[in-house]
Fold these 2 entries.
Entry 1:
Amino acid sequence: MQELLKQLTEHVGSIYLNYLLAISAVLLGAGFLLSSISICFGKPLSSVWKTYRSWLYMAPLILLTLYLGREATIVSVTLLSFLGVKEYARATGLYEDWWYMTMIYIGLFAVALLVSIPDPGTGALGWYGFFMALPVFAIEFIIIVPIARNKAKGQLQPVALSILGFIYLGWMFGHLGFLANSQHGQGYLLFLCFAVPISDVAAFTSGKLFGKNKLRDQISPKKTWGGSIGSFAVSMALPWLLHFSFPHFGWVELVLTGIIVGIGGQLGDLTMSFIKRDLGIKDMGTAIPGHGGLLDRLDSLIFVAPLFFHMARWFHDL
Amino acid sequence: MLNWMYSPAADLNLSLGERLKKFPREPHMWMYLLRSVIALCIRFWLKVYHRFSVVGQENLPLGKSFVLIANHQSHLDALCLTATIPFKHLHKAYPVSAADYFFSSLPRCAVASVIVNGLPFDRKDKSSESLEICRQALKKPGTILILFPEGTRSESGQLNRFRSGIGRLLEGTGIPAIPCYLDGAYGALPKGSLFPRPKKLTLRIGPERQYSREGSGRETVKKICHDLQGAVKSLRPAVSD
């Protein structure tokens, strides 16, 4: 057994192996817990089971992508941003307008390109300077659409929706792909993909246990302060527990990581909630059974990824 | 400041299968692109393999809503009729397809909705509702319905009796009906065979017919069916190969 573990460690690296074991343990434990609750208390829990079952194929997919490395990660993030933008556009009605969609899609390609190619000045992976300047060009591309088609009536709304769609779901989420360029990329990404959903689950669980006062009743009536504080506490503990993911982090970075995941994750969740509430829809789509649309799953990560990226880069370069 | 008006897709909370069956379909950029590319391939193949030719293309009142009516001998029919529609109007041309056949499984649904752009027609229990969907579709300017009033593929190659649906759809409306006759499809791909044979296909498109002044009622429906059947029959060549 130890021999096998040793060989595996040599093959995939100790960080990856730790996560492989941790994720398997969490999924097995959750499955066991859910079955005991439904057997002991006689509750059917069908919606929770549905959510759980979707994790059973999402977790291996994420693990496989991160195992395959930088290129696979960038391709996956790009694909997710395309599908996410599509969901958003279908939900807002922007999808009917090919002009704006084409501009957003061009922007998404640009994100993928700038994340992939090396910086011509320094040779580092990912053209950081241009990537950061990209919103300027993307917004100008979107803004010239009404001028190009000589149309003013009702154009402000699609322009605004397109800019939000590209910046939030394309460029900000694209930072996740950029993290793959870092020498510590695998650890960062494994941590984010593991910690963000865990803090989500913590919010759900502690909300069920201690939730009384509504957090934001006009946005998401089911969320409570109890859930929010529970999630924050778990998120603050996770960077210390999973310190092996980024051994070069000092205590300041660990605290900041906890805050980013604990607060940013919930804000991301609430962001998607208010968008959905304003649109008058319950879910962004039906892509993941038990979760809703793709954006219902990615909401926290979209908010957390760029914050974590800039924090990590500020302290340690990429 | 007033609130913005959003228009979320009507099929947002439907699964993929349900979304493909739904009509009218939501606009979908990638689906249009895929359909256009496949249509280009189909047109090329019809031209080269079947030496497909069209007589009377100028009879199509493009830009207006109209109904294309043809004899039904094989699965090639809908493809041939769609191939006469210019690309600009392709995504508004809907072959009316049997829901119990073309929309019965996910792969069939995908082909019927993405490639053929079919309008699912329930010919068994809900034909009135399906006719209403057709009527609503025709209200959008530029809609083209491709309809086979025989209701199913002919097993002998002969023109069968027209069902009453087409009469009920057209009675009392000013929607032009364009009769067509596709010749050669029975020899190329009869009911029950899998691979098409390289037979020559010719489509003859007749002048448009309108039934706005006929009034309505059972007799009118019968009359329309009879008239259209005659019109389609008259386009059949004297000696069919």
Note: Chain B touches chain A through 14 residues (CB under 8 Å).
Entry 2:
Amino acid sequence: MTKNPAKKEQFVKLVLVAFALSSLLFLFLIFIFILFEGLPLFHKVGLKNIIVGSKWAPTKGFFGIYPMIVSSFLVTFGALVIGAPMGLSCAIYLSEYSGKKMKMFLKPALELLAGIPSVVYGFLGVIYIVPLIRNYIGGSGFSLLATSIILGIMILPTIISISFDSLMSVPKTYREGSFAMGATKWQTIYKVVIPAARSGILASFILGMGRAIGETMAVIMIAGNALRIPTSILDPLRTLTGNIALELAYATGDHRLGLFSTGVVLLVIIMILNYVANFGIKRKM
Amino acid sequence: MRINPRFTNKFVQLGLNFQAFFTVGILVIIVAIICFKGFPYVNFEFIFAYPEDMGRLGGIFPSIAGTILLALLSILLATPLGVGTAIFLTEYTKESVFTKIIRFGVESLAGIPSILYGLFGFIFFVIKLKMGWSLLAGVLTITIMILPTIIRTSEEAIKAVPRNLRIVSYSLSATKWETVTKVVLPSAIPGILTGIMLSVGRAVGETAAVIFTMGSSLRLPTSLMDSGRTMAVHFYILAREGISMEKAYGTALVLVVSILLINVVAYYLMNKAISKYS
């Protein structure tokens, strides 16, 4: 083909720009369609009655999702309590203590945890964690505690890989300076390396929160899905994601719109978390 | 009282050692449970037979086929889009407000949880575009979901190709596009394949976004407009509705082993890509 090469270049560039814009288009469509379906109900029922209303009976006109908002934050906090110390210590071990060979083995092994599908986590939670809690601690076992444990494990890969990257990006001279002052390895890590990497570490926690608050299938299998605010860690609860997944298949009319309103609230929370996390990661660079 | 720092140092080191192996232990235990419990039920018939009685009897062939179809078609759509975006971002433009906006879009897409993809796919593809619960609606939803992974990994792979290669190509009076297709892309292929394999893994393991777009019909989808279910959806329904624990464990084994294999291939390719230029 002997077409004008300059014209061909122009054409290629145009196609590539279109491809690059497609991501923005998809993001736009997702926002528009979720907001378009979800916002009318806020207008009709009132923002206050949805956000702070505590009764969810969509077929009777009650669309309060306050208990689910609280529950979503509770499981996310619980996941962080379990996942953050575990994840951070793995990241510290990987970046500061492990040898090269160990790193080559451990890092992919830990990242494989991210590949296990969430339904499998949920299933194993139902088979092993839930009965353990029911028999030894109390309650039905389907609980805030069980959900926090499973989510805590599920967010480990996120926390480990991002904390690890930020620990690794601390210059070697910082450590050498500290050693030269006679500090032990742990004093160096605790007083020099971690403070230097703190914005990346915080970002990893926030991204972990984003994963936990957005997780669905594992949560509906082990949370018990009760429609009230849990008063103890052994109480069942229903999250925003769970509310959507449990009812979307059969909901119609205003009921379905109510699920999209739940989606709007979730989307807003996720966007805020991601924005804050990205800010943390960029500041480190 | 002051604790000896050397003692603290040793103590912490032990603790961190323990923590790292404990975490890997969790992975080993999960895989071991699934393998042990599932192994007795997985055989030739289980993989190649059709399910009977809602999945209580028979095999899981349609869900394996559904999984492969969904993953393959999504990759076919997402790869040109994603690699094209990565080429644009790395080769065809300088850092500007425009690229910042595109990167913001990609990052935001990556952060959206799968249930919201399910919600969007359901209202947009299934209802508004009247596709119904179908393979097509599932494929389009998953395509958007895996796009950010492909863009990011391809971008990294393309950036890692040394500048010298490009300069030599230009000095031979090649055009930009010739340089990209004949020099840059061939060198970046292992890295791009890593992203593709990771995306396949994500598509295979996904449930929330699939169940509300592709539906959960037990039949083998024979056209784009047919509903169908993937292994992950089949496993979820078997386990949640208590249809059959044996079949659930069997399905989980096939599902988890496929995902692990896909990920191992991805890491192999990644190591190959890293060792190439360092």
Note: Chain B has two domains: 5-41, 44-276.
